[in-house]
From TrEMBL:
Protein name as catalogued: Mutator-like transposase domain-containing protein
Segments forming domain Mutator-like transposase: 235-530
Lineage of the organism: Eukaryota, Metazoa, Ecdysozoa, Nematoda, Chromadorea
Native organism: Pristionchus pacificus
Domain of life: Eukaryota
Signal peptide: none
Gene: WBGene00281622
Ranges of Acidic residues composition bias in the record: 207-219
Region annotated Disordered, chain positions: 200-223
InterPro entries: Mutator_transp_dom
Amino acid sequence: MIELINESIFNDNKFRMSEPRLKKCFLCLESAPQTRRFPQSSKPEEQLEWLLRQNRDEEGFQLLLNRHRTVKEPRWCLRHFTSPTDSLPTDMRPDAIAPPPLLTVPLRTSRPANLIHQSQFSFTTGSQSVNDNSSMPPSPSFSVLDTMPQQPPWEPPTSPIRFDDDVLWNYADEVLPKRFKKEVSTKTTTTVVSQGSEYVCSQETSQGEEDDEEIEKEEDASGERGHYAIVEDACLLRLFKRCQECGAGVDQSLIKIKRCGSARIVRYDCLNPECNASVKWESQEKVGSERSRVYSANHSIPIAAFITGTPLPRLCDFAQVLELEIPSDRQMRKTIREIGSIATERVFDGWQEISRELAVNVAGDKGLQVSIDGQYDSPGHTSTNGKVTVIDCETKLALAGVAKSKNDPGIDGVSCRIESEGAMEAIIELVDRNINIRTIVGDQNGMVNKRLREDPKTASIERVFDFWHVQKPMRKEWWKIVKVNPELTPIYQQFFNHLYYVHNKYTERKDRPYALELVRSFLMHIQGKHKWEKNDEFQLVTQCEHGRLREKDNVETATLNAGTEEFEAVRKVLYAPRFKKAFLEAASLIDTSINESYHSLSLISPRYYKLKMQLAMLHHNSLMLDDLLERRKEIGNTVLSRKARVVIAIKRKRGAGTHTWRHDILEESIKVRIELSNTRTMRLLGIPEDDVFDVLNAWWEEKEAQWGLEMEWI
């Protein structure tokens, strides 16, 4: 009897385990065996489309969106979907365009090819001439539907509805995002009528066919944008089977192909006695003038590699692996040195004028707030080159940049002087252009601050410190304390949260003394004292600013007792004179973080250090201008842990910038090549290359206009 009961219980549990698990619908609160997962927060477009289809008002839509985002994995049951295979819910909006039901007929057993008349297919043999258009039939398509005659789709006699794919799915193409169009496009059907038989060919293609279509679309799109193409030499010969002048056949053995960098030059002589032409075909147009004329790609390849940061050795390796002909390494470096550098400097000067004018207009009469920071090519005192950049804190545009070497005058081989010399040169350049600078924020570089105070042109500018550089020395001291006393780790985290809270709350300069005492009040807090009397250390702050502590946190025993070795170590850090001076002069609303981000764009190159700096500034300013014009859209985000503030931050990834300056440099480089040719001609003719004659002529005309006399040259 007991065995029968156990067996029945086992069978009952086994039956229950085989039942499908019910899941609760977040929208209607009903349980269902099959549900769909609501899109994740990283897919806002899908979330928006799901919720907009529920036809809620603005308040209800926002409430529904917030409810979904508070739950880990919200699910919807299949009651909210038209079909179990749909990935989008049913559209409940009154103005939604619902496609009519598609009428089909049973699929016949015969294959599609058997439904088409054999006379519709006609292929040419290998002996037929390619240029004989009179006997050439239309090219057959891979799709059977393309070979059918254009007839209206099949229509049942009892239904007045005619299907038109363009009408049915026009709404989906305009409203749905790109990722949802694939589902809609694979559900249309096309009816083929041939000789009285009806056949419905569904467009639900396989994954391989869809991939082929996507690849073909990508190739078509890239072909529209491309200016150059890669063609094999063997395929190139097929274009010259006939003479381009008369159309007669050409002996392939007489065709000569000459390689000139990336260009190809094809020569052949026509054997037709009536033509007898000597044809020369070039794969590229030439740019420049006279002796400096070169093929366009041979000119553009080294310039494009330089402005995009592509190392020439890697570019040569890439071409060697593909057996792709490009200009030699020596020729490319010569093009960069003689043409690319001049074009880059010209475009850089033009973009700098635009950036400075924009920053001045945004700042108005109150003046600019700029951040300044330097970067070296190597750490320590072994660096050879360095650069200093001045960036506007409002528009985040790089306004000035100076590249220095330790061999420059004034530095005398001492690497640490590079930043101070570069900072002074960059700031004075802006001041000489009548740009009003109100505040300069930088790190605690004593040499830079001393030079700014002593120079009369910059003495009146307010100087503040970046707060990250203010807390950095203190953090190192805390690490030493925590390394010896690991039990102080919670206090370490609490203190730096308290430090950043006070710094961001009291931003005015007049409130900084009060903020400093509030930071030091952390010593009273860790003792369990939250109110105290005024004394020599606390004249402005007499209590903590936090609310009433919870009972489980308000314990009687102190977190850290006064007089202990650990307490005195923490006290020494908070009362350090260096920290007091830096905290009182720290900036709250501006910092040098944008400079640190800009430094990641720089490409260290000892030979083209200044040019690389200019390219980095062009790249940075182009991105900032795209942000101001809202051209860059967010395409993703990543959660990061910020070590400096013991908090979680979100890094947002946006789309690529336009970088129109690259095309400007390419266009300017062609002008430089033409000017270079003219300069060589002037040198050969013995014409002076300087402008002394033009200056004297202008001075002579000015004096004639001033004196009102026509003077003669002596």
